[in-house]
Each structure stands twice: as C-alpha cells, then as structure tokens.
Amino acid sequence: MIQIENVTVIYNKGTLDEKVALRNVSLRVDEGEFVVIVGSNGAGKSTLLKLLVGDVKPAEGSCKIFGIPVISEKIFKNASIVCQDPNQGVFPNLTVEENLILARRKGIRGLGFGKIDPKSVELLKSTEMGLEETLKRKAAKLSGGQKQALAIVMAVSSNPKLLLLDEHTAALDPKSTEKIMELTQRINKELGTTIVMITHDMTIAEQFGSSVIVMEDGRICTKIDKSQQKVMASQLKAMIRSTVFTTTT
Amino acid sequence: MIPIIEQGLLLSLAAMGVYISFRLIDLPDLTPDGSYVLGGAVAVVLLHSGHGWVFSTVIAVLAAGAAGAVVAFITTRFKINSLLASIMVMTGLYSLSIRVMNAPNLPVPKFDTGKIMNYEQIVGKTPLDDLLGDVPASFEASGLKAVKIPFTNLGDGHDLLIISAIVLASIVILSLFLKTEFGTMLRGYGRNRFAVKVLGVNPDLFAYVGLIMGNVFAGFSGALFSMYSGFADVNMGIGTVVVCLAAVILGEIVFGSRQPIYGAIFPIVGALLYQFLLTFAMKYGYRIGFKPSDMKLLTALFVVAVIAARRFKKSEVTV
Q1: Given this model, what pLDDT does residue B119 score?
Q2: Which of A21, A29, A98, B275 falls between 20 and 30 A from A211, CA-CA?
Q3: Cβ-contact A54, A72 below 8 angstroms
Q4: Please, what's the b/e burial string for B52-90 (b: 16 or more CB within 10 A of its CB; e: otherwise)?
C-alpha cells in the first residue's frame, strides 16, 4: 500500500537553514498493517507523515501510495488523518451530527440535505464516551477526549483505506488515551483499515502496533513486526528505549 | 418611520454579505465598500440603457460577485491576506465604478427609451450636466415611457412591502443554502480549513464561494439602494463595511449565544437597529453638538468598543 524508496527530504535546501529531515529512507507498509513509528523529537517522524500526505516533496527517491506518487490534493480521497490537536479533526462550530454527515463520504458536496449514516452512530456508540447523546451539540462543547473520538469516527466514516495518526493521544488524559487506543485497534482489526501511527508513548507502541518502526536522525533504525516482538520483547523494549532516550537526552 | 425600516432592510442585505465574509468563512473582506457602489453603478447604467429593474439588478449582482471572485483569486493563488487583497480590489473598484457610470454619480432615469442607448443619446447631455437629475422636457414630448421601479423613497407602505419581501426571500434562500451539505461545509470551512482538506475537498473553493456570496449581497444592496434613492454615487460605499459590521455586532448582542438560522438573522435585526439609532442620533444629537457627519466616526468607535469589550471578557472574536 505504501512504498517509500530511498527518500531524502531536505528543508530550506541551498540556504543557511538547510536541514536534512529524512536520509535515504525506505519503507513498505502492506494493506491491513498497524504500523507505529517511534523516535525522539527531530527524528523525522512528522516529516515522514508530511511526506505521506504530500506536504513535503522528496529531494531524492520516490513515495507511492496505492501504487501512485503522492499528490497533496488527491491523497485524502482514500486516506484520512487525525492530528494531535483534537480541534484539528472536527468542525467546532457544527453539531456532532453535522460533522458526521460531512464525514460520511469524501469529495465535494451538492445542494442536498444530508442524513447521518447509522454506521457512524454505531461507531460513535462503540467509543463508550457518551457521544451518541451529543448529536445536537456543537463539537466545540465536547471534551478533548470526546473531540478526538469524534475526529477518529469522522476519519473512518468514509471507509478510507489508510488512516494516518499523528500523536493523536498526546493531548489526552490516560483514561481517554486508553479508550481512543482501543477504538484505534478495533478500526484496524474490524474495518481492516491500514494504520500508520506516530507516538512518543512506548507502551502504546509495544501494545498496539503490528509492527514498530524506530527512527533516529532522519533514518529508520529498525522495523520490527509483532512476531519478533513476542520473541524478543525485552530486547525490543531495551532497543526502543535506548534509542529514544539516548537521542532525547 | 417607514423609510427608516426600508433603509434598514436595504442595509441588511449588505450586512448579510459582511456577515458571510467576516463571520461565516472568516475571511475579512473590505471589498463591499466598492462592490456596493459597483452594484449601484451597473444597475443605474443598465436602467439608462433601457433594461428593466430586475435585469439591471441581476447583472449588477453578478458584477459585484465578480469583484469577490477577484479577491478570492488574489487571496488563494498568491497567498495574500484577504484584507490586503480586498483593499486593492476595493481601490480598483472606485475607478471602475466611475468608468461604468462615466461620471462620479448618475441619477436613475425617469423615462424608458425602449431600446439600449447610452446616457448622452437619451439625455442629450453629459451625465455631469444632469447631476441634479433634471429631466429635459423633450423626454415627455418624445413620448417616452416612465421607467418602472417598484420601490422609491416615497415612504408609503407599498415600498416597504416589496423591500421586505426581497429581504425575506434572500434570508430564506441563504438559510436553506447554509443547511445543505455544501452550505454546511462552507460553515465548517470558516473554522477549520484543514478538516475540509482532509475530506478530500480543495478549501480554496470555499474562499471563492464565500467571497463571491459576500459581494453579491453587497452589490444587491447597492443596486436596490440606488434605485430606491434615485441615484448611484461613487462615494456612497465609503464606510459600508464598518457600518455593516456594526449591524452584525448589534445583531449578535441582541441574540447573545443563540444562533437562529445560522446567524443569518443577525444582520437584519442589527441593520434595523442601527438605522433607528442613526435616526435617533440625527434627530436629537444636535442638542449636544452632534452632526450627522459624525455618525461614521461613532460607528467606528462603537465597533472598536465592542471588540475591546469582548476581548476584555476573553470571549471569542473573529474580527
């Protein structure tokens, strides 16, 4: 599904502020995978995500999703993204119902009066955050956790093939984080949506990812899948922790 | 009393345009100062060319909408702040309106030639010669029909009825549009452009739609006001945005946190209230040394005061 080959991304190329954000990165993500990317600040995680949504272009190499090169305007026809800020994924001035009506499919709308998709309501109920009671309430009035749950439900309502998560639990309390991660895992398992998630939380990376990618200094240090994790759980933890904490400190 | 309501209702159409740009899509736009005049200028010139008031208004509205499209183009294509882009377009429209009228102002013709003719062919003089709207006697003598505009500032209930119907129809159409999926996304665009992009839609589309709609309403108001008052003047748009913004804010104050029909009611209630306050100030203000020309200064001070008060209360302000 995702094919990144020998990609190098350079910010402010040719200026004094030139910075190499990704160095010769290659990565393959297959359909249905739940890939978690971990790494310290400046490791290149966010740039990798920006590359996937077409916000940055590679100086070298190629990045293809669904077999075609990434184009910023078209990528969201088949993919969705949920960001760290819960306000970024919802329309705060619209009601929860209006948000879900808009999210049920991708692309431009007509002049019809949309109806809410029952599947979206079911998904909303499954978050167990009481969101189904708030359909007529403005999204701005929801708590941070509820907003993020709504953002995820909105992101998957149109059945995207790929879901990108950019530290989507970073701004939440532990209880909300747990519920959001349960929802994320259900989406991967029950809907079969391919997920690429960035996180700083090592526990989440170990617990939920079908494979974990560790990044450092713009490079992918290692990609370990779940079967390896089971065999080498302790080594993996040590590796991830040492990589992240060494770079951070 | 009736003329005050009529003028308030006509102003409310322009205020609706300002509400769309400043509040709904959050792209502050000063173009209505120019598109209001352009609407009036195009409408009056077309009346002079022998067209009916409906056709003249439609073309005037389209011309004003085109001005909005130019602002959207500059804003989205060149990534220039909408305020700056609209200042440039507004300045350009000043010259354009004079070009359209071939004069700084133009009276609404009193007689219909029945065919498309330019002003000089009809009147036999340049527009500057007819600044006061004096119709040459040769008009009637040549058997020309009177131009029919169903509303003038006569202050009878007849005008009020028609203007009310126009404003009511506008608000019904606008609120129905805002309820559609497209309209819902337009409202959403005003607060979260990124979410629009994630839904696979180019957010720039809504900058175009919103700015065109805003200027369509301003041009509509300008065209109707010119017909109502009997002239189009290149200076009649000065301060339109500030006055309309004051009307929108007044409406918001009246309704508080409630937002009936997506807030489209704010400009109407606010504009009526503004017009009453204006009349009250003009009627009794002279006792404290107040002049009618001070009204724009007071309006600007009012807008600043309300924004400052809201900031002080830490409530949300998008101006």
Answers
A1: 59
A2: A21
A3: yes
A4: ebeebbbbbbebbbebbbbbbbbbbeeeeebeebbbebb
**To 5 degrees, how large is the angle CA B269–CA B272–CA B278?**
135
* Distance from C-alpha of A90 to C-alpha of A101, rounded to nearest angstrom: 12
d(CA A145, CA A204): 17
Radius of gyration of chain B (CA): 20
Q: Is A121 exposed, middle or buried (0-12, 13-18, 19+ CB in 10 A)?
A: middle
Whole-number mean pLDDT of chain A?
85
Taking only Cα atoms into account, the Rg of chain A, rounded to an integer number of angstroms, comes to 18
Looking at A102-106, B45-49, B98-102, B278-282, which range is the least confident one? B278-282
Q: Where in chain B is CATH 1.10.3470?
A: 2-110+147-318
Of A91, A135, A90, nearest to A115 by C-alpha is A135
What is the C-alpha separation between A75 and A61, in angstroms, rounded? 18
Q: B197 at the A interface (CB within 8 A)?
A: yes
Q: Strands A79-82 and A162-166, how do they pair?
A: parallel
DSSP-derived 3-state class of residue A72: helix
Expressed in angstroms, the distance from the first to the final Cα of chain A is 35
- Residue count (chain A): 249
The predicted structure's pLDDT at residue B139: 53
Task: Tell me how far apart the alpha carbons of residues A157 and A121 are, in angstroms, rounded to a whole number.
Answer: 10
Residues in chain B with CB shorter than 8 Å from the CB of A159 are none
pLDDT in tens, B53-70: 999 999 999 999 999 999
- Indicate the angle between helix axes B240-255 and B32-48, nearest 10 degrees: 110
DSSP state of A138: B
Domain limits of chain A?
A: 2-89+161-244
Token pair recorded at residue B231: 């002239």
What architecture is domain A2-89+161-244? 3-Layer(aba) Sandwich (3.40)
Burial of B146 (0-12, 13-18, 19+ CB in 10 A): exposed
Closest Cα in chain A, distance from residue B178 (Å): 9
- Tell me if B195 and A101 make a contact (CB, 8 A cut-off): no
Find the closest chain A residue to B202 by CA distance: A73
Residue in chain B closest to A79 (alpha carbons) equals B198
Does the domain at residues B2-110+147-318 carry the CATH identifier 1.10.3470?
Answer: yes
